[in-house]
Design brief:
Residues 14-27 have low confidence and may be disordered. By secondary structure, the protein is mostly helical. A hairpin with a 4-residue loop joins strand 1 and strand 2 (38-43). The protein contains six helices and two strands. It has one domain (49-179).
Amino acid sequence: MPRVSQAMAIGVVAGLVLLGAVAPAAAQTTTTHTPTTTTTTTTLLPHPFSAATAACVRQARAGFRACRRTGGSDCFTAFETAFANCFASGTGVSCAMKCVTNDGKCFAKLPATKQSCRKACVTTNKADVLACRQIANGDNIWAGGDASCLSTAQANLDLCRAVCANLAIDCATALKFCIANCQNL
């Protein structure tokens, strides 16, 4: 059963996910003004694939799943090639191949990244708890005394652990945005 601080952290993350899912997708635009020039940059959100590319990607993913079910040895390499071939010949294929290769590297690094992330969470929590124990009795620097400080430290630890647990989402998001730049069939 989760502790109160874990439930609070889970509630905050779930609320952010739910509220974030309700908002419509839109491009983000940033404008910078200086006395002499104005620069505008736009971050394009991933676009849907063309019908031909989408059908090809579905077929490549189905082939990958079938290969894994049968215990094939080079399933991911075959998938990389099949997926890349779902894009326009030349620059589209090389772009998609680069994106899928980077995605594979991201997922390969995931166990080590999660381990170092968890270590950082524990190290930060130890420092937070130590700082909380440094509060003198009667000092109300945290408005609720050291109990409030310890609750905040625990909530920060829970949130940090949630971030570490969901690092795979970063890999998937990076792939989506990379593929958005590749030319479709």
